[in-house]
């Protein structure tokens, strides 16, 4: 790593010095470094790249995808690779399905802390503890999505390169987040939180200095 052909981090888009790690004194403010996404190698995915990896489907055979041009993407209220939506207060159940069906499907693809049972508490509904006690090794006990990726929903929140901000309701190809901010995007939900946070459309953020057993990362690679 570190040549001009490879994916590299720099102090800014007009700087030539390659930053090799977070302790590199040339970096200064590490949180403000610049990544050239056109270069080869490993880096954090942009939020758009993460969402595409989580949502891509070859077709709509499972009946749970929306079409964008010629591309099918998992519906925003569902976990990655799921054929049913995630349960939450106010959701209209799919025809012929109950809350246990939604829990079973969510548990097929995601690790999460609580699931929504709309029949609990005399029909008022409540979040029910799933029994999850911590992170699980990747590729254990859950099914991969259509792209072959495991744990895109649940297990640990995953860092994205983008700074967090509201997303404008416009059509844009491969968008990038703002140039600066105070927190970076995290996606996917985790083993501790409610299942709804595992949906492919749910966004959150943490300060770059945050850490813990609910946070992780998944590297993107341009070969």
Q: What does this molecule look like?
A:
The protein has helices spanning 47-55, 99-109, and strands at 9-10, 18-19, 34-35, 41-43, 56-57, 65-68, 71-74, 114-117, 126-129, 157-163, 184-187, 203-206, 215-216, 220-222. With 223 residues, the chain is mainly β. The strands form five sheets. Strands 12-11-10-13 form a four-stranded mixed sheet. A three-stranded antiparallel sheet has the order 2-1-3, with no helix packed on it. A three-stranded antiparallel sheet has the order 5-7-6. β6 and β7 (71-74) form a beta hairpin. The two termini are 12 Å apart.
Provide a short characterization of the protein structure:
This protein is mainly beta. Helices cover about 10% and strands about 20% of the residues. It is built from two helices and 14 strands; from the N terminus they run E-E-E-E-H-E-E-E-H-E-E-E-E-E-E-E.
